[in-house]
UniProtKB/TrEMBL annotation:
Keyword Secreted: no
Entry superkingdom: Bacteria
Stored PANTHER family: ABC TRANSPORTER ATP-BINDING PROTEIN, ABC TRANSPORTER ATP-BINDING PROTEIN NATA
Domain ABC transporter as annotated: residue spans: 4-229
CDD domains: ABC_DR_subfamily_A
GO MF term list: ATP binding
Listed Gene3D superfamilies: P-loop containing nucleotide triphosphate hydrolases (3.40.50.300)
Keywords per UniProt: ATP-binding, Nucleotide-binding, Transport
UniProt cross-references to Pfam families, sorted A to Z: ABC_tran
Claim: Membrane is one of the keywords in the record: no
SMART domains registered for this protein in UniProt: AAA
Protein family: Belongs to the ABC transporter superfamily.
Protein name from the UniProt record: ATP-binding cassette domain-containing protein
């Protein structure tokens, strides 16, 4: 079953672009990463899905319900972390949790306090006195406290230090094992790589690629660095080069293919040294940020 189903969703702000013709699905129990640079449309997509923004065209279903008509039901049954959180600054964290608990059946504030211990958040402090990262933890706990079946998290890791990020990811993995579906946005592919089953890449308002992480790992990418004694002249063509970087006496590129084929192709190239290493996912994907849709690189 698809927990999120988006069909041709477009949101324009007057004449300016928000998102254009976005379609994708997120299956039950999946962790889906939504990646894109600043201003690419991640928050617009999420805010339209939750009916904080009215769509220009297109439809979407969340938990099988219509995003516009059933938005009250949807907001009650999911956990949502906005990219920027604003609370009553005067309240203490534990007071906020008690207050929020009133919106849900049962006493969810107990669970909130357990999450706070796990995320090392001092709940006796006033919200206005918290750092940006600690305010983010408050937002995360608010999204998780009622144990929703679907989490929609807009840049949850912004402001978290690496240790906290790791604790938070462990928490998300545990939730996935219990059947929770997680959709979260991020600027960073490398962090998504650790966690997601699939990743969607949005650029300039359009979804340009959706990749299954297993497939990505199965593909054979290498980062190749050739060194030359003389000034480097790019007079040869290597099949499988995804992106290249040329300096005076070196040629660096991401290669997609078998190393044996690469070495065969390099037989007549007059380099004096070569390094071949595993690229980061960021390096493999970088061309999506740099080049236009439809650029075929065999990914
Ligand atoms: N309220 C608004 N009025 C006009 N344009 C807007 C508004 N909100 C967003 N936009 C525009 O919509 C586009 C998508 O912005 P959005 O905030 O969705 O991107 P994002 O991927 O979430 O960015 P970031 O990573 O910086 O948070 C941008 O061009 C932005 O300028």
């Amino acid at each position: 079953m698809n927990v999120i189903e988006i069909n041709n969703l477009t949101k324009r702000y007057g004449k300016s672009r928000g998102i254009e013709d976005i379609s994708f699905q997120v299956a039950e129990g999946e962790i889906f990463g939504f990646i894109g640079p600043n201003g690419s449309g991640k928050s617009t997509t999420i805010r339209t899905l939750l009916n904080f923004l009215y769509p220009t065209s297109g439809t979407a279903k969340i938990l099988g319900k219509d995003m516009v008509k059933d938005s009250t039901y949807i907001r009650q049954h999911i956990g949502y972390l906005p990219s920027e959180v604003h609370y009553y600054d005067d309240m203490k964290v534990n007071e906020l949790f008690k207050f929020s608990s009133g919106f849900y059946p049962g006493d969810t504030s107990q669970h909130a306090m357990q999450l706070a211990t796990r995320l090392q958040l001092d709940t006796t402090r006033k919200i206005e006195d918290l750092s940006f990262g600690n305010k983010k933890k408050v937002g995360i706990i608010q999204a998780l406290m009622h144990e929703p079946k679907l989490l929609i998290l807009d840049e949850p890791t912004a402001g978290l230090d690496p240790l906290m990020q790791s604790i938070f990811f462990d928490l998300l993995k545990e939730l996935q094992q219990k059947g929770t579906t997680i959709f979260f946005s991020s600027h960073y592919l490398s962090e998504v790589q650790k966690l997601c089953n699939r990743v969607g890449i949005i650029k300039e308002g359009r979804m340009i690629k959706i990749e299954n992480m297993e497939d990505m790992r199965a593909k054979q990418f290498k980062k190749v660095h050739l060194h030359f004694h003389e000034k480097f002249e790019n007079t040869f063509r290597i099949e499988g080069v995804l992106q290249e970087h040329i300096t005076d006496t070196s040629y660096e590129f991401i290669y997609n293919g078998h190393t044996r084929d690469l070495l065969e192709q390099l037989r007549s190239v007059p380099f004096y040294d070569i390094t071949i290493e595993e690229p980061s996912l960021e390096e493999v994907f970088m061309h999506y940020y740099e080049k236009e849709e439809g650029d075929q690189h065999g990914l």
